[in-house]
Design a protein that fits this description.
This protein is of the alpha/beta class. The protein contains 10 helices and 17 strands. It has 2 domains: about 15-270, P-loop containing nucleotide triphosphate hydrolases (Rossmann fold, 3-Layer(aba) Sandwich), CATH 3.40.50.300; about 280-380, NE0471 N-terminal domain-like. The strands form 4 sheets. Strands 1, 2, 5, 6, 7, 8, 9, 10 and 11 form a 9-stranded mixed sheet that branches. It has a 3-stranded antiparallel sheet with strand order 12-13-14. Strands 15-16-17 form a 3-stranded antiparallel sheet. A hairpin with a 3-residue loop joins strand 15 (about 335-340) and strand 16 (about 345-350). Helix 1 (about 35-50) crosses helix 8 and helix 3 packs parallel to helix 4 (about 140-150). The structure holds adenosine-5'-diphosphate.
C-alpha cells in the first residue's frame, strides 16, 4: 500500500483525492507535438507492467488525447464530490477530454485553466497509487504553476525531440520547474532516429543525441531515447498503446529500458527538493522554519510584511516597492500560514494582508540581508 506520509508534508493541505499517492510525476515539454502524451501513456502502462499501481492524469487541457490513445471515452462515474477514474490497460486514468464536448472548441483563459486543474487535482478519487503520471500541456503556464502549488510533486520528466529549437523551449519548461523547486528527474529524447524495419539501419532524421547532450550540460539524468516508430503512432490511434502487448519493435524496447532506468533511479531515492522539514508558528506571531540540516530560523511578521513580494506591495511594471513600511504596525503578527508546493509559504497577517507567497530561497536571502544590515549597524 502506498505510504501516505510520503506526499503529506507538515502544513500542506493535500487535496483529498491525492492523499494516498506515493509519487506524483509530471511529464512536461517545451512545445507541443514532441510526443509527450504518447510517451506519458506508454510509460504509465510500462510502469504498471512492472507491478506498480499507476494512474494517468491527462491535464493537457489544450489537446487532451488520452481517451483516444487508451481507447476509452465515457463519462466517469460521480460519487459524492468525487469523480472515479476510468480503468484501461492496467492503469487508472482521467482526462479533461472525458468531460468536454469534442465538437466544441474550448478557449481557456488563465484563471479558468487554474480552476479546472484545481478541481481535477482535488476531486478525483485515485485511491492507493505508487505513481500518478501527469501529462501536462506544453509550455510553462497556469496549469504547470497550479500543479506545482497544489500537488507536492516528486519530480518532473521533460520530453523533447532532438532538434535545437525543441531543445531550447524544453529548457524553458525545465527552468519553470526549477523555479518552483520541483526536482527534474530526467530527460527523454523522443523521435530519436528511425530504425528501418526491413534492414535495421538507424537514420537520424531529426538529428540525434541533442536531448542527451542537454541532460549532460544541465547535469540531469538522461532517461533514454525513443526512436521514431510507425507502430507507436498507429497503436496510439487504435486505442491500444504499444506497451500493452510485448513485441519486438525498437520503440517497445526503448520505453521498457527507460522504465527500468526510472525504477532503478526511484529505488535508489531521488534527490529531494531543498525545502523545510517543518514550519511552525511561534507564540509571538512569527514563523519558525526548520531546514533539512536541522537549522532553525525565525521569520518575524514585521520583516515579512514589509518585504511582501506580492503585486499589491511591489509594482509589476517597475519592480519598485509601493508599500510604505511606515503603514505597517510594528506589532503585526502572523495569523495563519500554508505551505505552497515544494517551494513557498503563504501567510495571513493580522492586518488582513494575505496575498504574499514567500519562496523559501528568498526567505533565506531576506534573513541574510537583515543579518548583514544588523551586523553593519553594530559594527564599531
Ligand atoms: P504531444 O503530446 O507532445 O503534443 P503526441 O504524443 O500527441 O504529442 O504526439 C504527436 C504525434 O506524434 C502523434 O500522432 C503520435 O502518434 C506521434 N508520435 C509521437 N512519438 C512518436 C514516435 N516516437 N514515433 C512515431 N510517432 C510518434
Amino acid at each position: 500500500m502506498a505510504d501516505e506520509k510520503k506526499v503529506r508534508k507538515p502544513h500542506q493541505e493535500v487535496p483529498r483525492g491525492l492523499a494516498r499517492i506515493t509519487n506524483i510525476i509530471a511529464i512536461g515539454s517545451g512545445k507541443g507535438g514532441v510526443g509527450k502524451s504518447t510517451v506519458s501513456t506508454n510509460f504509465a502502462i510500462a510502469l504498471a507492467k512492472t507491478g506498480a499501481k499507476v494512474g494517468l492524469m491527462d491535464a493537457d487541457i489544450y489537446g487532451p488525447s488520452q481517451p483516444e490513445m487508451l481507447g476509452m471515452n465515457k463519462q466517469p462515474e460521480v460519487r459524492g464530490d468525487f469523480l472515479m477514474p476510468l480503468e484501461k490497460h492496467g492503469i487508472k486514468f482521467i482526462s479533461i477530454g472525458l468531460l468536454l464536448d469534442p465538437e466544441q472548441p474550448v478557449i481557456w483563459r488563465g484563471p479558468m485553466a487554474s480552476r479546472m486543474i484545481q478541481q481535477f487535482l482535488g476531486n478525483v478519487m485515485w485511491g492507493d497509487l505508487d505513481y500518478l503520471i501527469v501529462d501536462l500541456p506544453p509550455g510553462s503556464g497556469d496549469v504547470q504553476i497550479t500543479l506545482a502549488q497544489q500537488a507536492s510533486l516528486t519530480g518532473a520528466i521533460i520530453v523533447t525531440t532532438p532538434q535545437q529549437v525543441a531543445l531550447g523551449v524544453a529548457q524553458k519548461g525545465l527552468e519553470m520547474f526549477r523555479h518552483v523547486n520541483v526536482p527534474i528527474l530526467g530527460i527523454i529524447e523522443n523521435m530519436s532516429g528511425f530504425t528501418c524495419p526491413k534492414c535495421g539501419e538507424n537514420t537520424a532524421i531529426f538529428k540525434q543525441g541533442g536531448g542527451e547532450q542537454m541532460a549532460k550540460d544541465l547535469k540531469i539524468e538522461f532517461l533514454g531515447g525513443i526512436p521514431l516508430d510507425p507502430n507507436l503512432m498507429s497503436s496510439g490511434d487504435d486505442g491500444s498503446p504499444l506497451m500493452v502487448k510485448p513485441n519486438d519493435t525498437p520503440a517497445y524496447k526503448a520505453i521498457n529500458d527507460i522504465t527500468n532506468k526510472f525504477k532503478e533511479m526511484m529505488a535508489k531515492g531521488v534527490e529531494k527538493a531543498y525545502e523545510p522539514s517543518d514550519i511552525q508558528k511561534t507564540g509571538d506571531g512569527a514563523i519558525e522554519i526548520t531546514w533539512p540540516d536541522g537549522k532553525k530560523e525565525i521569520f518575524k511578521a514585521y520583516d515579512m510584511r514589509v518585504n511582501c513580494p506580492c503585486a499589491v506591495c511591489i509594482s509589476e511594471e517597475t519592480g519598485e516597492r509601493t508599500l510604505d513600511p511606515k503603514s505597517i504596525p510594528l506589532d503585526i503578527s502572523i495569523g495563519a500560514f500554508q505551505r505552497i508546493g515544494n517551494y513557498a509559504v503563504s501567510v495571513v497577517f493580522s492586518d488582513g494582508h494575505e496575498t504574499g507567497i514567500y519562496k523559501f530561497d528568498k526567505l533565506s536571502e531576506l534573513q541574510k540581508k537583515q543579518k548583514d544590515a544588523a551586523d553593519s549597524t553594530f559594527e564599531v
